[in-house]
Amino acid sequence: MQKKIIALAVASLASGAALAQTNVTIYGIADAGYVYSSGGSNNILNTNNGNKTFSGVQSGILGGSRIGFRGTEALGNGLSAIFTLEYSLTIDDNTGVGTSNGNGGLNARQQFVGLQSDKLGTVALGRQYAPGYVATVNNDVLAGSILGSQSILSSQAGNTITPNSAARWDNAATYTSPNWSGFTAKAIYAFGESETLAKDGKDSNANLRVYDSNLSSTDNGRFGLGGNYSNGALNIDLVYQQRYSVVPTADSAMAVPNLWGNDINEGYIGASYDFKAAKVSASYQQQNDKNVANNDNTVWSLGVKVPVMAASNVLLTYGQLEMDAGPRGSRVDGKSNTATLAWTTAMSKRTTLYAGYVWVDNDKMSLPIRFSGVPAGVGQVNETNNTFAAGVNHTF
What we know:
Layout: H1 2-20, E1 23-39, E2 52-59, E3 66-76, E4 79-88, E5 108-117, E6 121-129, H2 131-138, H3 149-156, E7 168-176, E8 183-190, E9 222-231, E10 234-243, E11 264-274, E12 279-289, E13 295-308, E14 312-325, E15 335-346, E16 351-362, E17 384-395
Antiparallel strand pairs: 1-2, 1-3, 1-17, 3-4, 4-5, 5-6, 6-7, 7-8, 8-9, 9-10, 10-11, 11-12, 12-13, 13-14, 14-15, 15-16, 16-17
Signal peptide: 1-20
Main location: membrane
Subunit structure: Homotrimer.
């Protein structure tokens, strides 16, 4: 009898230790494909050298290649400790955003630790998604893929409401609410923590750049607030994001310091609805740059996803970027239009084959927008850019 009691006690202790351990999940995406892209030379400058083309293998076309580690530990009374460590991979050549960021470390998509309460919500610290990231993924039938119109236009216009790297903020504190009958809210503040240029940007001899010493000032800080309503087939997102007192830093390439120091504000509304026979999505966003650079722009996009056959989909997106930027004499106030026609086929729950055609048309006063996976020279103002891509996406 005594042996049985001892055995039960040991089993109970072992069970308690197991429950206290962190539950860690390893996950990721391996995605690569072939890309062929062609764009005309800039004929405004009479550099008529024929089309510029790109042909090669690219990583992360349908979805960004990555590896991640996610864990939770129950602390009792509905409270848990959580963490996420997620890193970009370029599986085609291991450069750029691959396993090294050039400083001997991994390039993080996300890395944060926090506390999660069933009733009170989640607080986290680290490099995290701003609300605009998830919103743009929610309301894009291509789920933020670089094939999609909204992704192409928002990233190259310099917006932080985008499904791309600009929506991942360092030094950030976030609060995410519980789900209240389909509604959730998220707030984020990212500290600047950078040595920013002094007001005049020069020493008394006007020779050297002079930097303020306060590394936790509001300069280059960021704030975001997002609300999401999701109920069955309907999804709606509203987002506001702000970059405070944007000024050059010690490692910045901004050339003229006295043209900076003001805020950049962004707003977004997006929605999607799944009719079963087809899923539709739409979004509209604006950026207001109060600096002399005045990088104001408007982006809107539409999309439709139609299931065909057993496990395939036809996807179509269309979007437009309207620039209203730059000081007098060097204004960028033109339009860029882009459309995507894509096909996906699920070979299993984890493996998807895809192919797509992307068309971009820039007028003479717009930006040199192009397909995001190719070098800048392929896309030019006053020219079109045509891209074909096909590949395989595997999740794990």
